[in-house]
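Let us work through a complete example step by step.
Step 1: write down the sequence.
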Amino acid sequence: MNYFLTEEQQMIKDLAAKIADEKIKPVALKYDEEGIFPRDIVKVLADSDLFGVYIPEEYGGFGGGIFEMALVVEELSRACGGIALAYAGTGLGTYPIILFGTEEQKAKYLPDIAQGKKLAAFGLTEANAGSDAAGIQTTAKADGDEYILNGTKQWITNGGEAEVYTVIACTDRSKGARGFSAFIVEKGTPGFSFGKKENKMGIRASVTSELVFEDCRIPRENLLAREGMGFLVAMKTLDRTRPGVASQALGIAQGAFDEALKYSGERVQFDKPISSFQAIQHMLADMAIQIEAARCLVYQTCRHIDGGAKSISKESAISKVFASDTAMKVTVDAVQVMGGYGYMKEYPVEKMMRDAKITQIYEGTNQIQRNVIALELIKSQKVSK
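Step 2: predict the structure and record it as tokens.
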């Protein structure tokens, strides 16, 4: 379908697709099996100026938005959802600075991120604070011109690899969620270290690890927004970045479909390619329908957000749920179309099925997203009355 991309958006999409095909596909299986963080691919993306597509021009970026970032994530994920996360995870860690940073903070951090010199990460989740993000235990205590951070963040994408971290910590326990604040923490700060590197089912070319704060002192100017706004910073950020997860899921689904379609024309059984059998044709048709519907939804959600819409929580959640559920179904079906070959690690759809699962879990499980969607629907009904 024609999605009426601008000339610049089409160039971004084509460039990301070229990198996916020429640089990522040849190493995807190796990086997955060995858990290799894709520093070489990061350099290619940096040299291609793709890290700057969603960063304002005044800070060295391209001046685009969530849509431009999603186009890149989709194409990279078509080749490998794990490798794409070095890029997508940086977007998640950067958006709190774009949305809530002071001019000084933006000038200090965004140009290096736009050039790919530094990666970013987002520190919200903890061992006992996943879906219940308001249950975080990491603290930040004001001490003169500094804050002292103590606690541990868990399952952080780009953990240990990123140079810039946006971290949510509690500054006033008595105020509940209104007692959280957001901070920028740089790698190498005394008292800031990294714990266990997780051994994951999928996205194994992405590093997921703990962030450990032990009397970590950071300057007061590293506070994002104001004290007590940390939960708002986190929620507003996730509302804008969930389409990034949706685009990752969309890319994984498209990659799996491409492999299954190609295989169905090559695999001969009963003296015919299996693509001639109606059972396979119907599976392929359903996969194509679901992917195209997901793409329409993801692209329109991105345009809705970039267009300045004030209410985006419901739309963002819908795109994430639909695209990730689509990715899971399409990758499972791709394995089925390819049969025994699809189950073998030497073929990419096995990996794609493993990679797809996380898109239903992180940045808010699909069950939590359905809660968000339902509550927004109920709220709008009350308002209309």
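Step 3: interpret the result. The longest strand covers residues 146-157.
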